[in-house]
Amino acid sequence: MTEICTHVDQIRPVTPSADGCEDCLRIGADWLHLRLCMYCGHVGCCDSSPNKHATRHFHRSKHPIIKSLEPGEDWGWCYVDELMFDQM
Length: 88
What we know:
alpha+beta; Herpes Virus-1; 2 helices; 22% strand
């Protein structure tokens, strides 16, 4: 049985909020990989980054779906359902 994300209806056309992790840019911190909130366009850093701003954004906003902003990557993640998407 294939699991299906129950939050795909919350994916919107978004514009990235910054050219890097907007929260790291604000505090002068470094990041490893970038994630894009598919609800509001917030750009945050991944959980391998020291500040984990993409996940912090989810906990603060409850926006469930992110996608990778890394070149050559085309996947997404639903925090609520804990499911990965291919080709977002």
